[in-house]
Amino acid sequence: MTDHTASSGPILPYVLVLYYSRQGATRTLAEQLASGVESVSGIEARLRTVPAVSPVSEATAPEIPDQGAIYVEEADLRHCSGLALGSPTRFGNMAAPLKYFLDTTSGLWMNGALVDRPATAFTSTASLHGGQESTLLTMLIPLLHHGMVYAGVPYSETTLLSTQSGGTPYGTSHLAGPNGDREVDADERRLAFAQGRRLAELALALTSMRSARA
Ligand SMILES: Cc1cc2nc3c(=O)[nH]c(=O)nc-3n(C[C@H](O)[C@H](O)[C@H](O)COP(=O)(O)O)c2cc1C
């Protein structure tokens, strides 16, 4: 997976896999989804995260996170060919750090920078009925405001019909359990991979469409 900085500009088209994760479950889904992106030739995955937000306004995050991907910059989003957005469920909605980042993207919205780029979302919860679908459906709202084309997981991925854990047509999900220690299982991995692969294919198709229009 590419780690080149945003300021160097895109070499290959890339899908930005942007996530927030405290206990690691959403990060595991992000990495699996990124593998699906990279199974498509001609496009890369760029994994990025966002810093935590703190009720103490003077608190600052280290420049490099202790673990996982480096922090996203606006240019990572501006130049992406597709976006996969991942968040733990927090009271049935996305986590504040990710929402905080999205709330800084009005410049991209004003320029229509993300119009006609595909996007998808993924999440992790403690409990099976703890709000996976509501989180995914609310995550797509700001993406639609940006003019992005939302892609979920189609039922042609038949794992959706048989999974006993995570997996929704709105996006991949993971059941982490009450202690957050349940591993991402084979069905959840398969769906995350398929979601990434599909997003990459759509990203290439929509890039061609935009080029033909220009
Ligand atoms: C403030 C807060 C709110 C949460 N709300 C929910 C919830 O509504 N439903 C749920 O099932 N789990 C909820 N959880 C649990 C997390 O979604 C779950 O542990 C998730 O797997 C964490 O993902 P991560 O390992 O990527 O940090 C909440 C956790 C926190 C800290």
UniProtKB/TrEMBL annotation:
Alphabetic keyword roster: Flavoprotein, FMN
Q: Which InterPro entries match?
A: Flavodoxin/NO_synth (IPR008254), Flavodoxin_CS (IPR001226), Flavoprotein-like_sf (IPR029039), Flavoprotein_WrbA-like (IPR010089), FMN_Rdtase-like_dom (IPR005025)
Name the needed cofactors.
Answer: FMN
The UniProt entry, under Pfam families, shows: FMN_red
Keyword Flavoprotein belongs to the record? yes
Gene3D superfamilies, alphabetized: 3.40.50.360
Flavodoxin-like domain span: 15-199
Q: Family membership, please give it.
A: Belongs to the WrbA family.
Mind telling me which PANTHER family this protein's record contains? Answer: FLAVODOXIN-RELATED PROTEIN WRBA-RELATED, FLAVOPROTEIN-LIKE PROTEIN YCP4-RELATED
Please report the name of this protein according to its UniProt entry. NAD(P)H-quinone oxidoreductase
Q: Which organism is it from?
A: Salinicola acroporae
